[in-house]
Amino acid sequence: MSVQVKRLEQTSEEQMEACCGTSSAVRTPRDDPQAIRADVSSYYGDVAEQQLDRSAASDCCGSNLYLGEDLSELPAAAVNSSRGCGNPHVIASLQPGEVVLDLGSGGGLDVLLAARQVGEAGFVYGVDMTDRMLELARRNAANVGAANVDFRKGDLEDLPLEDDTVDVIISNCVVNLTPDKGRALEESFRVLKPGGRLAISDIVVDGDLNDLPVSEEDIRAGLSWAGCIAGALSAAELTRLLEAAGFEEIAITFEHRYNSSDFLGELPPSLRRLSDAVLAELIQRFTSSSIRARKPRL
């Protein structure tokens, strides 16, 4: 099986600052799946609540990642509630008539953009585990009269869709939030039609975290799971899980690298004691990446 990993050395601060994570969010034990889900659900439930009660008229996230998209006709609440790290539509190249699934659909931004691209002959499902996000997404869809969408409650590890249902799976910085990424990718494989494709944006570690003067466990324990970083896989780990799930034509492209300014709030104690040079070396290994893979055709 051929696996492509491409490194791009540029860093885009404007794009990276729009990612979901900050170091000041609550930190959750990595070995407690229930606590992870509760942490993530609470964090994004609060994001949805701000938009539902209109207490946040604007937000740093959303539009910076979609400079090539026309967002003018979409609800501001859909744009402002986005907590992504890339633009999966650039990766997916959606076509009219395709059936699409958005993993972790949030306030519905990517679903509404996809619905516009696949047209009346296509259909888009959004899956999210947070009730308030689902409420927000359904309201946003109703506001623009999107008839070719359906938002369903569920976990990525147990998708509420039948086998061989969708042509394309998109996602924007959500797979890294799941406690069991292997199971989430297996579920993605299950619901794709033969020949269907995975086209997602996510945070991926370039290389590993084993050669630093602080252990990987301490690094991850000091970071926020809900903030996208603590659960990020290395490119090698992600490739292994994609292959184990059955995917082929795997390609991972490191689009943008983090820098210290992306870690909003106070750094955790495990990282504060590192020198500036070592800290910079650590942070730049976390990248916003494009991930492509395909389910084999029959």
What does this 3D model show about the protein?
The chain has 298 residues and is α/β, with parallel strands linked by helices. It has a single domain (3-294), classed as Rossmann fold (3-Layer(aba) Sandwich), CATH 3.40.50.150. The protein has eleven helices and nine strands. It has helices at residues 13-16, 33-52, 76-80, 88-92, 109-118, 131-143, 181-191, 216-221, 235-245, 269-272, 276-283, and strands at residues 3-7, 99-103, 123-128, 149-153, 166-172, 192-205, 233-234, 248-257, 286-294. Strands 1, 2, 3, 4, 5, 6, 7, 8 and 9 form a nine-stranded mixed sheet that branches. Helix 2 runs parallel beside helix 6. The longest helix has 20 residues, at 33-52. The protein is globular and about 55 Å long. Residues 9-18 and 21-26 have low confidence and may be disordered.
